Amino acid sequence: MLGSTAPTSAAPVRASERAYQQLRGEILDGLLGPGTGLLEVEQAERIGVSRTPLRAAVARLIADGLVVGRSGRGFEVTELSVESITGLYELREGLEVHAVSLAAERRDVATFELLREKFRSAPELLLQGDEGIRRYYDLIDDFETAVDAAVANPFLYSALENVRTHLARIRRLARGNQERLRAAAAEHTLIIDAIIAGDTLLAAHATHVHLHQSLTNVLATLAEDAATPVE
């Protein structure tokens, strides 16, 4: 009897996970933009799951802060407002400045020296179109992974992962700004140099400058988009 019931109980879990991963990926990639409505029946049919696992997936997205309920019926993708982005960066600075300071104390020098070599290729990568930009963001992921490993604090890691989920949406705003991406690569290189040197104060300051420049650029891009007339 146990063998006959196990597949039935496992199937909804798989369907829920599939729905969650698909919706999450579409939100982070911008395919489901801010304010996009998510009607239960429509999304369940589109993804190919029943409504029960779809609801479970949406519940996880709400916990992630990527989806909210909306008046009337259904749900919608959360907006990227000035207030929400500014609040996220306030949290991001507190977490990342502390993380890089700890990384400068606890780092494996060889790991960050290898990262520094990789970042030297960033200017060339950024000239290679979408594929080069994707590889550049892979370098950012490698840097974050190295910092997480150096810090070795699962509580800090968990908090950072939540912030990074939302940053994935915000990063899309800078993808077409080559000047900003080149500047960000240089800022990351300075942070890495400070970590290699074991200079906690410089690592913290370089991270503060990087986040300030990043936020300034994001808010300027939002303002430009808001001012652009819809044709």
TrEMBL record:
Q: Which Pfam families match?
A: FCD (PF07729), GntR (PF00392)
PROSITE patterns this protein is in?
Answer: HTH_GNTR
**Any one GO molecular function term:** DNA-binding transcription factor activity
Q: Which InterPro entries match?
A: GntR_C, TF_FadR/GntR_C, Tscrpt_reg_HTH_GntR, WH-like_DNA-bd_sf, WH_DNA-bd_sf
Question: Which intervals of the chain form a coiled coil?
Answer: none
DNA-binding keyword on record:
yes
Q: Which UniProt keywords apply?
A: DNA-binding, Transcription, Transcription regulation
Domain HTH gntR-type: from-to ranges:
13-80
Q: Which PANTHER family match?
A: TRANSCRIPTIONAL REGULATOR, GNTR FAMILY, TRANSCRIPTIONAL REGULATORY PROTEIN
What protein does this entry describe?
A: DNA-binding GntR family transcriptional regulator
